[in-house]
């Protein structure tokens, strides 16, 4: 297969849509579609339903399938759809096959949720998923700093459809080494820690980055992308300064409010409810006001 269109889609802003809920706590289909349209109209070319900002681990199997289907329907070819899959290998394979049947382009494989991860086992887990959907692009989501570039290279040799890596280790030096050991040009390297880490990761090999902030201000994320593509690091850092406090709030206490802050911003804009599911928690009132003030300053 020619995976070049999918590789191009990954080398961009990869937005992670939130999953809004209605007053009864169910997925709000209308709000979800409206938020997706806003991303697409804002110029986003790749979306990841069932990502962490979409509360993947708080959704039921049926809800994850619903979100997948809604995303493919709404995207309608306007953006590449990269569906988050995970849990045990059998569940991940079933989700990947459902994504394929729904019309998705790629799957992003969440980090294996297991206390004991061997490098060879990591390869086997991803290979099982990739081989089940050879016609889809596959992107491992790597948060484990102990997975070496050589392991990623071996996975790529076995599975041509593993075309990218979402790298989310808080260490740009480690990323630079892993990317080169795995194959800098073999994979599309996506900075998986979003805008605050994008400039440093871009400098050493990333060509795309993920974004939860894009739910709120897609133009801000795309402004950073444009600056990075132009090699305008001062320009990129101006965007960095603009969003720093917002992203710092999301990152507090090991990212406890990653989703909460984004939904609070959307609620302040009247786009969806602020509700999140446990173990996340809505912001206390003083922080709500701060988030609203930040977003108002962006003029979105």
Automatic annotation (TrEMBL):
Classification via InterPro entries: Aldolase_TIM (IPR013785), DapA-like (IPR002220)
Keyword Methyltransferase: no
Keywords of the record: Lyase
Highest taxon of source: Bacteria
Family statement drawn from the similarity comment of this UniProt entry: Belongs to the DapA family.
Alphabetized PANTHER family for the sequence: 5-DEHYDRO-4-DEOXYGLUCARATE DEHYDRATASE 2-RELATED, DIHYDRODIPICOLINATE SYNTHASE
Protein name, UniProt field: Dihydrodipicolinate synthase family protein
UniProt source species: Streptomyces javensis
